[in-house]
User: Which sequence fits this backbone?
């Protein structure tokens, strides 16, 4: 699903730069496979590309899941504090709640944003993957060069721009002339990359002189785009409808392989992730439960309706995540909760030591309970002698107070409190 959203952000500065870097990686993979092994296949490149990207993200995934594990351990304490201050909006209560929350995070050696940072780092990468996989010719020079001969022929035809705009604005291309300049070769390459068999036929009908060069180009691209008999530039739904109309059982089976695999691997991937305990008060648990079924169904839907290359990417990425998750689960199973807390405390101590906070203070923060924080917040750091001096000073300043003034009223309240305090002391004695 993020791929659909990413289409609107592909030109954003950070995502655009990340996509450029990933495009260089994809281009390098294609050149290596072609130069060393003589393999010119986009499907194989997508698989290798996906494995490399998700392998590089393993440290971020581990960090995020460690935080999730600690969050699950902390949740009862956090909920207890939240319920304790529910409905209290005064400044004192809010400050106490914040102190107690911070004490919990210090106790486990993590920060409230610890789980967000790995996700924030991953998001530009995940959003940038989509334009690279969707528009291979933009980033892979070898694929772009396959289309250039037919593009040059098209641009040499009178009125080519209107013809290409009419074809490109319709399904399955859907590249709007209002957003893209059809007089540019790069735009025409992107349009042709999205062509299917029927679209090529329409182009030949509009420009008959292209018949020979179109045949040569489609044969070459058929070799580049064919993966296990599937045209990764075509939508599986189109292939399925064609196969059903021709009663081609083999084509029907091939057309559903990628969408079904994408949905199944997505389901397994989500199930392998650490599941929070079932708790109606825990929104994370409810969210994970709904994702277990909605994400795979969405993967199947988009796997049918978008080019098979994207479905292949989703399926492979889910497979890689499954393998990674099994390895991560095994790695984390060797570490007890106490070990993780100790590691977190040591890392937090090093960070705070750099900022001038002593390790002893870190240790005290990590071991104190939220109850002690509350108690401390209610106690004064002032000694009894200092307190008495301040009271005497205040009494001397209030000798000349006018009756009925705000200061006089405040003094009455103070005398009342002191009287009650004295009575309580007498009872204790």
Assistant:
């Amino acid at each position: 699903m993020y791929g659909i959203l990413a289409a609107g952000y592909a030109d954003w500065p950070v995502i655009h730069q990340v996509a450029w870097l990933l495009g260089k990686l994809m281009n390098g993979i294609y050149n290596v496979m072609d130069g060393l092994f003589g393999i010119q296949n986009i499907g194989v490149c997508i698989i290798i590309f996906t494995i490399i990207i998700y392998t590089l993200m393993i440290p971020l995934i581990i960090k995020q899941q460690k935080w999730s594990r600690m969050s699950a351990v902390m949740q009862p304490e956090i909920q207890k504090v939240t319920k304790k201050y529910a409905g209290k909006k005064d400044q004192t209560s809010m400050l106490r709640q914040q102190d107690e929350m911070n004490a919990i995070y210090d106790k486990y050696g993590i920060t409230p944003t610890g789980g967000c940072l790995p996700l924030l780092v991953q998001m530009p990468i995940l959003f940038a993957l989509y334009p690279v996989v969707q528009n291979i010719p933009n980033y892979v020079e070898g694929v772009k060069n396959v289309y250039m001969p037919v593009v040059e022929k098209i641009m040499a035809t009178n009125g080519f721009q209107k013809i290409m705009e009419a074809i490109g604005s319709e399904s399955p291309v859907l590249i709007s002339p209002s957003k893209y300049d059809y007089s540019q070769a790069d735009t025409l390459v992107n349009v042709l990359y999205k062509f299917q068999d029927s679209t090529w036929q329409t182009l030949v009908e509009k420009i008959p002189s292209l018949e020979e060069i179109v045949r040569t180009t489609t044969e070459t691209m058929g070799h580049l785009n064919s993966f296990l008999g599937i045209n990764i530039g075509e939508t599986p739904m189109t292939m399925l409808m064609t196969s059903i109309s021709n009663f081609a059982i083999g084509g029907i089976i091939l057309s559903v392989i990628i969408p079904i695999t994408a949905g199944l691997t997505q389901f397994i991937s989500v199930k392998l992730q650490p599941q929070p305990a079932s708790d109606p008060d825990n929104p994370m648990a409810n969210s994970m439960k709904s994702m277990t079924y909605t994400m795979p169904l969405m993967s199947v839907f988009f796997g049918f309706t978008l080019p098979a290359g994207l479905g292949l990417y989703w399926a492979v990425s889910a497979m890689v995540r499954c393998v990674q998750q099994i390895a991560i689960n095994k790695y984390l199973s060797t570490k007890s909760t106490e070990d993780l807390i100790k590691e977190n405390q040591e890392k937090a101590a090093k960070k705070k030591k750099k900022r001038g906070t002593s390790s002893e203070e870190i240790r005290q923060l990590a071991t104190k309970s939220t109850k002690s924080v509350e108690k401390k917040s209610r106690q004064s750091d002032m000694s009894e002698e200092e307190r008495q001096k301040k009271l005497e000073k205040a009494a001397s300043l209030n000798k000349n107070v006018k009756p009925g003034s705000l200061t006089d009223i405040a003094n009455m309240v103070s005398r009342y409190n002191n009287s009650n305090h004295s009575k309580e002391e007498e009872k204790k004695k």
